[in-house]
């Protein structure tokens, strides 16, 4: 298989260099570009055909949220995933990043091995959210009426089984874990998730999480 093509976007040169060394140490990844601003990240994602952008939020010229929104809205970048890195005190920004089209986020003190695993997870099309208190805070912010879900439908269009699957996706379960929970085969679970994304017009699993919380299907405290 071809290596995951990773673009690093952070306004701190030393941080980018450290991330680059880490990513290049993985045999299944390669760094195809480094950006110091959000605008550079958007341009390089297009020019270098990156699979995934590791995106900082606070950057000059164009911040990570707006850069994520531009990437998600560009039909030529439909296959590009965004993994946002942040600090523990920017939960509101993370919610906006997810609404903008990010496929997940991690806090910057994540262990190196966990960051590599996160890149693999997001590149494979899974949503990834930091666990614990941050996830619960995100659930609370997602329930606010600040913005509508970035989809074309709601859970009312789903079957009862699909609603069950959606609730488990919102809790962060993988297809395999969903299959085990509901007594399904992994392939059936994957099919359900794909159909749900199609019915809701969701770009990826992260947007399914947003729909589940903003519709009230899953409530804060149930993570």
From TrEMBL:
SUPFAM superfamilies: C-terminal effector domain of the bipartite response regulators, CheY-like
Molecular functions per Gene Ontology: DNA binding
Listed name of the protein: DNA-binding response regulator
PANTHER family: TRANSCRIPTIONAL REGULATORY PROTEIN NARL-RELATED (PTHR43214:SF24), TWO-COMPONENT RESPONSE REGULATOR (PTHR43214)
Residue span, Response regulatory domain: 5-123
Record-linked InterPro entries: CheY-like_superfamily, NreC/VraR/RcsB-like_REC, Sig_transdc_resp-reg_C-effctor, Sig_transdc_resp-reg_receiver, Tscrpt_reg_LuxR_C, WalR-like
Keyword terms of this UniProt record: DNA-binding, Phosphoprotein, Transcription, Transcription regulation
Domain HTH luxR-type: 151-216
4-aspartylphosphate modification, residue list: 56
PROSITE patterns for the chain: HTH_LUXR_2, RESPONSE_REGULATORY
Record-level GO BP terms: phosphorelay signal transduction system; regulation of DNA-templated transcription
């Amino acid at each position: 298989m071809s290596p995951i093509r990773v673009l690093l976007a952070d306004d701190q040169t030393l941080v980018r260099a450290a991330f680059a060394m880490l990513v290049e140490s993985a045999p299944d990844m390669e760094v195809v570009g480094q950006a110091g601003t959000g605008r550079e990240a958007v341009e390089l994602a297009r020019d270098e055909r990156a699979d995934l952008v590791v995106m900082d939020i606070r950057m000059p010229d164009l911040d990570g949220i707006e850069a994520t929104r531009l990437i998600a809205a560009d039909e030529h970048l439909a296959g590009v995933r965004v993994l946002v890195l942040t600090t523990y005190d920017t939960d509101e920004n993370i919610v906006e990043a997810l609404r903008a089209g990010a496929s997940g986020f991690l806090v910057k003190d994540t262990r190196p091995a966990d960051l590599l695993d996160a890149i693999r997870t997001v590149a494979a099309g899974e949503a990834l959210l930091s666990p614990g208190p941050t996830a619960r805070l995100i659930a609370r912010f997602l329930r606010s009426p600040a913005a509508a879900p970035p989809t074309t439908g709601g859970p009312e269009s789903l079957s009862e089984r699909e609603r069950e699957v959606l609730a488990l996706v919102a809790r962060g379960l993988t297809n395999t874990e969903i299959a085990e929970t509901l007594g399904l085969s992994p392939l059936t679970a994957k099919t359900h998730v794909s159909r749900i994304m199609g019915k809701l017009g969701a770009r990826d699993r992260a947007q399914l999480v947003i729909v589940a919380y903003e519709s009230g299907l899953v409530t804060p405290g149930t993570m």
